[in-house]
Design brief:
The protein has a single domain, classed as Vaccinia Virus protein VP39 (Rossmann fold), CATH 3.40.50.150. The chain is about 30% helix and about 25% strand. The chain has helices at about 25-35, 55-60, 75-80, 120-125, 135-145, 165-170, and strands at about 45, 65-70, 85-90, 100-105, 145-160, 175-185, 190-195. Helix 1 (about 25-35) packs parallel to helix 2 (about 55-60). The radius of gyration is 15 Å and the shape is globular. The model is unreliable at about 1-15 (pLDDT under 50).
């Protein structure tokens, strides 16, 4: 894995990956933003860790106690092989209340019509459902439970996901938000949103 943006594969190049989402420009944007914000020794969770790229950077660069969680058993294996402690599970459900200082997530965020669903592990990694929020909303529903007091969550979304709708949904769950990083692309802008408990 590399920190050099020129060597990070573009998302379009990742479509032929069969079972595990690999780091692309969205992964790098999220990792860059979070590494700057996390303090050494903080306990961090990478939800939907995939290959373990974000968790690895949190461990290596921020010196955080980062672990990963993913439903895909092959993703868990790849993250483990990369040196990331990993749990197989659905988002934050395997963890106790107030377990983490930081929770990060690069969910599937692209709106996908039902007729284009693949019904395999990569479909789960890439498809955000009809509105792009099939994993975003459940993440916001549940992340507050595992955050410690003064904890923060970081979410990667796209302008195609409806950022204002996402932030309004979070406010209804007592999460205040701020866009802390963005990166333009031809048909969208990628955004990193930080959420704090109100």
């Amino acid at each position: 894995m590399t920190d050099d943006a020129s060597e990070v594969p573009q998302l379009a190049d990742q479509r032929d990956i069969e079972t595990v989402y690999q780091p692309a420009e969205d992964s790098k944007l999220l990792a860059d933003a979070v590494v700057e914000a996390v303090e050494p020794g903080q306990r961090a969770l990478d939800v939907g860790t995939g290959s373990g790229y974000v968790a690895t950077r949190l461990r290596r660069e921020a010196k955080a106690e980062a672990i990963g969680v993913d439903l895909n058993p092959e993703a868990c294996e790849q993250a483990y092989d990369a040196g990331v402690p990993v749990v197989r599970g659905d988002m934050v459900s395997p963890f106790h209340d107030e377990s983490f200082d930081v929770v990060v997530c690069n969910p599937p965020y692209l709106p996908t019509p039902p007729e284009q669903e693949w019904d395999d592990w990569m479909e789960r990694a890439l498809s955000g459902g009809e509105d792009g929020r099939a994993m975003v909303d459940p993440f916001l529903d549940s992340v507050g439970r595992v955050l410690r007091p003064n904890g923060e969550a970081y979410l990667l979304i796209s302008t195609l996901t409806g950022p204002e709708e996402v932030r309004a949904y979070a406010r209804e769950r007592d999460l205040q938000s701020e866009i802390i990083a963005e990166e333009p692309h031809p048909f969208e802008k990628l955004l990193v949103v930080r959420f704090d408990a109100a």
